[in-house]
UniProtKB/TrEMBL annotation:
It comes from the Bacteria. Homodimer. Residues 37-280 form the Aminoglycoside phosphotransferase domain. One of its GO terms (molecular function) is S-methyl-5-thioribose kinase activity. Belongs to the methylthioribose kinase family. InterPro entries: Aminoglycoside_PTrfase, Kinase-like_dom_sf, Methylthioribose_kinase. This is S-methyl-5-thioribose kinase. It holds the Pfam family APH.
């Protein structure tokens, strides 16, 4: 076997294949033959192993040449692991301590060895269980602001940023998934769609809303054409791992250059879906307080994004955009320009948010918050609230740019 020949790892072969790589063996420790190896990939796409030895543990993630949740018939390039690696490295620089640390990367094998996050669990599970996480919204808002700002020409030297856009533009297959599954499929009878049967009337209403479809396509156009910063690209509550007091973000294999608003909008959408699904998961005595907490997380996420972005604007504006030479050096404040940009980001984030709320109920990949509701009548009632709020956000985003207005809109639909 040549080094360049890709072979998928297994629990049986992992120790032999990675046992003499110091970055792995020194962290795991002991005889590789005695490593405890579990495959834990619960995602839609990849192999993920937890490898434990006498010293510690690492996670090994390897891309598969097809879409795991669909099967070998849907081919997907291995190179997505390269972009995940590039993104993890950049996120560590832009927002230290949030993404898992990378210990080793093998490009031909499309595998990444990284920090084992423990005792973290997937945030979506905690939200379904009704558990709280300290500083959740603040951490996410700061992460989105730091990656948005520091990955853009507000911060980066222009040649470096343009070279990076070039690097990431080699990734075609992954953005194509988002372009169809997120932005397009919800609004027509796409082959891989599925939805709760009782939703037929509301689905017809959404597909009949021309203004909605036009806005969704305009947001897709911004998503494909606007390369202002490096995105995570898949920032849903299944890409967030948490304890009660620690928040980490994994799985940036959908990373691409795109609009600053995209990650923020997707994250907020996943909290709104958690919010609307709660009546199926909580007893009556816990419901109101827990839903209130989710709305507080959303508000904290949005407001922390703005506060951190403003802080970086004041202290780290070193790129070609809005240079000090045009403002502060001429005794002109630039806060108005920053606020105008933040207003635009907020409005676009709400539209992306609405689209994500639609696709998770109507397109291929649903989320457990709704999917685990067995009573389809109840599920459809809760999904309808989510779909109608999503519609309002897409068509009329500008009306909800104040955090209080967004929270009120959620309460109105609940
Ligand atoms: P996919 O791209 O296939 O969705 P993920 O990166 O989301 O794969 O990983 C799948 C699962 O593996 C996660 O839901 C999580 O349970 C686990 N996992 C992934 N990375 C880590 C990590 N660094 N530490 C602990 N668990 C992890
Ligand atoms: Mg994942
Ligand atoms: Mg469903
Ligand atoms: Mg993934």
């Amino acid at each position: 076997q040549r080094a360049s020949d890709y072979v998928a790892l297994s629990v049986e072969t992992l120790g032999v294949r990675l046992g003499d790589i110091p970055a792995v063996s020194e962290r795991v420790g002991g005889d590789p033959a005695n490593w405890r190896i579990r495959e834990v990939g619960d995602g839609n796409l990849n192999l993920v192993f937890i490898v434990e030895g006498t010293q510690g543990a690492v996670v090994v993630k390897q891309a598969l040449p097809y879409v795991r949740m669909v099967g070998e018939s849907w081919r997907l390039p291995l190179y997505r692991a390269h972009y995940e690696y590039y993104a993890l490295v950049r996120q560590a620089r832009y927002a230290p301590g949030v993404a898992p640390e990378v210990f080793y990367f093998d490009k031909p094998q499309a595998l990444i060895v990284m920090e084992y996050l423990y005792p973290h669990v997937i945030l979506r599970r905690k939200l379904i269980k009704g558990e709280r996480v300290a500083e959740l919204g603040e951490t996410l808002g700061r992460f989105c602001a730091q990656t948005a700002f520091r990955g853009s020409e507000l911060s980066l030297p222009s040649p470096e940023k343009k070279a990076d856009v070039g690097l990431f533009s080699g990734n075609v297959a992954i953005p194509a998934i988002t372009e169809s599954l997120v932005f397009t499929d919800p609004y027509y009878d796409a082959e891989m769609n599925h939805h709760t049967p009782e939703l037929s009337a509301v689905v017809a209403r959404l597909r009949g809303n021309v203004a909605l479809k036009a806005k969704a396509q305009r947001m897709l156009m911004k998503f494909t054409a606007n390369t202002e910063t490096m995105l995570h690209g898949d920032l849903h509550s299944g890409s967030i791992m948490a304890t009660d007091a620690s928040v980490r973000i994994i799985d940036p294999e959908f990373s691409q250059y795109g609009p600053m608003a995209f990650d923020l909008g997707m994250a907020v959408a996943n909290f709104l879906m958690a919010y609307f699904s709660q009546p199926a998961h909580r007893s009556a005595d816990e419901l109101a307080a827990y839903q209130r907490w989710i709305l507080e997380v959303i508000a904290a996420c949005l407001d922390s994004f703005d506060a951190e972005f403003q802080r970086l604007w004041q202290t780290e504006r070193r790129g070609i955009l809005f240079p000090q030479t045009l403002f502060e050096d001429q005794q002109h404040a630039s806060d108005v320009a920053c606020q105008a940009l933040l207003d635009e980001i907020r409005e676009d984030a709400l539209a992306y948010c609405g689209i994500e709320m639609h696709r998770r109920v109507l397109s291929l990949a649903h989320n457990a918050d709704f999917e685990e509701i067995i009573d389809t009548g109840l599920r459809a009632r809760l999904e309808t609230r989510n779909l109608l709020m999503g519609e309002a956000l897409i068509v009329n985003a500008a009306a909800y740019t104040k955090t209080t207005a967004l929270v009120a809109l959620a309460e109105t639909h609940n």
